[in-house]
């Protein structure tokens, strides 16, 4: 009986068809996932694909830091005494303050987290800087570029340099992994809108002289 059962088992195994190997050609291809803009963070760390360029990106980041520009405008106000120059610099100062407050407010309301690729080593940051939307560097860079182009129309080289600098600052936010693409895009739009709003709120020369004369003395 044992031999008959073993023979039956062998024949049943032989009769079984081998499992069909699925053909790769017949497989249904899954749709490719949407592009991840975080893949642009090529300078997020020193070990990143373009990590060698990270120091340059950091320099661009610092060059558009709000605190740096606030200190620079205050220094210029203390050094110049021509009323027309004071008018321009004071409005620039007012615009920078407006930009910082607006960006902080939006970040506090939206509270979008920064990309996972970001290495949080920014200098002189506040609590709201942990949030991503919008990019304050993008708003500031675009605002400054348009402001300089409008107020210094005769220096074409400076205008070209400023717009180029603003573009590199915005792109560096993606390369460093600081922001999502939409953070930078909306930041640029907000920066442009800021300029035209502040242009309507432009502080006149007489008002600037009235406000600053106790500090700067009589302006010429």
Describe the structure.
The chain crosses the membrane at residues 56-77, 89-110, 158-176, 183-203. GO terms for molecular function: sphingosine-1-phosphate phosphatase activity. This is Phospholipid phosphatase 6 isoform X1. Residues 1-34 are annotated as: Disordered. Residues 1-30 have a biased composition (Basic and acidic residues). The chain has 220 residues and is mainly α. The protein has one domain (54-213). It has 8 helices and no strands. The longest helix has 28 residues, at 83-110. It is elongated and about 55 Å long. The chain starts with a helix and ends with a helix.
Descriptive tags:
220 residues, 61% helix, single chain, mainly alpha
Brief summary:
Pfam families: PAP2. The protein has helices at residues 2-15, 54-63, 66-79, 83-110, 136-151, 156-175, 181-200, 205-216.
* Structural domain tally: 1
Count helical runs.
8
Terminus-to-terminus distance: 122 Å
Count the E strands. Answer: 0
Largest sheet: none
Query: Low-confidence stretches at least 5 residues in length (pLDDT < 50)?
Result: 24-37
Sketch the topology as an H/E string, one letter per element: HHHHHHHH
The averaged pLDDT comes out at 82
Shape verdict: elongated
**Rg measurement, Å:** 30 Å
- Proportion of residues in helical segments: 55-70%
User: In terms of structural class, how would the helical and strand content be classed?
Assistant: mainly alpha
Protein name: Phospholipid phosphatase 6 isoform X1
GO molecular function: sphingosine-1-phosphate phosphatase activity
Keywords: Membrane, Transmembrane, Transmembrane helix
Organism: Octopus sinensis (East Asian common octopus)
